[in-house]
Design a protein that fits this description.
With about 475 residues, this protein is α/β, with parallel strands linked by helices. About 35% of the residues lie in helices and about 15% in strands. It contains 16 helices and 14 strands. Helix 1 crosses helix 4 and helix 14 packs across helix 15. The longest helix has 17 residues. The protein is globular, with a radius of gyration of 22 Å. It starts with about 60 loop residues before the first helix and ends in a 46-residue tail after the last helix.
Length: about 475
């Protein structure tokens, strides 16, 4: 079962920020990753709730939850919401799929309900590391925002900036943004954060890992200093220590151990393969019935594998930071609808992609560290569903994989497999591909409004104002 522990913060906002300090460090007794110890807080937590109806939520929000079939909160929601609805800061750790979005989203919306944003001045802000996660958060919150007549907009790079400036000028209470594009809009004078009362950092550790920390801290320094801050992530390591100490004031802390949570709902397999047989093994796994995400290290390898799978008769598509946002959006839509059965991706897909009933993730290339492993694996076994994570390991990679699994606190099942073998089929559903090449076609017409660039009447792509280089996954 998931292990939880909850603390809370004082309601007094007069205390200076930066008083919460992590204690100790290193490995926990159970052996997961070297994270800083969760901070000790000063004020007893409000007790968790077992139903959304027990929360002090606006009636339209409760009705919207019921309409979506949501009556019982996930543990991280039931533990944090009584406190965050009261205005307390929050520090939440839980693996992807544990319900973090509504854990912060419902409090953010409820506390913004009844207010109206001035042009260019949002009232609530959610910062995320990737475009895909921004869209997922917006999609998840939209029906609840509408129930409260709150306007939400997404601010990300890779798409025309004009529509985003228009939404901000019209007034948006809630902004979900990647740091780079939000900074662009602020620099242009199209967004001001001095009225933001509730700020959320989702997947804060990845923002730190991607080099966004200077932008994140600069943005946090612009929101209302007495406002509410919530930080949620699947892992909490020393990279977010600065954020916790500087911006959270005696937060309610809720931790669902990501490693323990993953073990209870996933099967973890390490498959020993020979280098000469790895390509055939990968192809047979890809040809299985059902959808699968396959992770590789580089854009070049992703494109090459996707191309090889198509030639083998597997409906595959590539996803990485080198694709345009229109291509990324279209590929994800095709994968979710089943038009594409295999998504071949770099770590750009390791966060922020939610696909229902995805029961297999394959690390064709072993991840670089335990955090990448947990986030890749978090694409399956979401919201209590079952799933498997399979990692293909050649002889020279075995020692490193043993260390990585130890750091992640996971004991995988280790099996020697070969292409065409019974064990490979039993574990992954692998089968021989058809051998008939397939072509994945784009929609017949790309229309404005779906995030894809449309052509002008003269057949030229319109110039994108304000576009700037951004990190690959932003």
């Amino acid at each position: 079962m998931n292990r939880t522990r909850t603390h809370t913060r004082s309601t007094a906002r007069s205390q200076p920020r930066g008083r919460v300090r992590p204690q100790g460090g290193g490995r926990t007794p159970s052996g997961p990753p070297a994270e800083f110890a969760l901070p000790r807080t000063l004020t007893p937590a409000l007790p968790p709730v077992e139903t959304f109806a027990a929360l002090d939520l606006p009636a339209p929000l409760l009705a919207a939850l019921a309409a979506e079939g949501m009556t019982v909160p996930f543990p991280i929601q039931g533990a944090t919401l009584p406190n965050t609805l009261a205005g307390r800061d929050a520090l939440g750790r839980g693996r992807t799929g544990s319900g973090k979005t509504l854990a912060f989203g419902l409090a953010l919306l409820a506390r913004t309900a009844g207010k109206r944003a001035e042009p260019k001045r949002p009232l609530a802000l959610v910062l995320v590391p990737t475009r895909e996660l921004a869209q997922q958060v917006t999609d998840a919150l939209t029906p609840y925002a509408r129930s409260l007549r709150l306007r939400a907009t997404t601010v990300v790079g890779g798409v025309p900036i004009g529509r985003q400036t228009g939404a901000l000028r019209s007034g948006a209470e809630v902004v979900v943004a990647t740091p780079g594009r939000l900074k662009d809009l602020i620099d242009r004078g199209d967004c001001v954060l001095d009225q933001v009362e509730t700020t959320v950092l989702d997947e804060a550790d990845q923002m730190a890992d991607m080099g966004f920390m200077p932008q994140v801290t600069a943005l946090l320094d612009q929101v209302r200093p007495e406002g509410q801050r919530m930080l949620f992530s699947a892992t909490l390591d020393r990279n977010v220590d600065l954020l916790v100490r500087r911006y959270l004031n005696d937060p309610v802390v809720h931790s669902v151990d990501p490693s323990a949570g993953a073990v209870t709902t996933m099967e973890h397999h390490v498959l020993h393969v020979h280098g000469s047989d790895k390509q055939a093994t990968t192809t047979e796994i890809a040809a299985r019935d059902g959808r699968v995400i396959m992770f590789l290290d580089t854009k070049h390898d992703v494109d090459r594998l996707a191309r090889d799978l198509l030639l083998s008769g597997v409906r595959a598509a590539a996803l990485h930071g080198g694709k345009t946002q229109a291509q990324r959006t279209r590929t994800l839509a095709q994968f979710k609808t089943g038009h594409v059965s295999v998504l071949v991706a770099t770590n750009v897909a390791a966060r922020g992609i939610h696909v229902d009933h995805l029961d297999l993730v394959v690390n064709v290339d072993p991840p670089a560290d335990h955090k990448d492993y947990l986030h890749r694996g978090g694409r399956t076994a979401r919201a209590g569903e079952s799933g498997s994570v399979v990692t293909l390991v050649t002889p020279r990679q075995r020692r490193g994989m043993v260390r990585l699994m130890a750091d992640a606190g996971i004991r995988p099942r280790v099996t020697e497999v070969r292409s065409g073998g019974a064990e490979l089929h039993r574990i992954t559903g692998a089968q021989a591909p058809s051998g008939v090449p397939v072509v994945i076609t784009a929609p017949a017409a790309e229309r404005r409004g779906d995030g894809s660039p449309a052509r002008s009447r003269r057949g030229r792509r319109p110039q994108r104002a304000g576009r700037r280089p951004a990190p690959a996954a932003a």
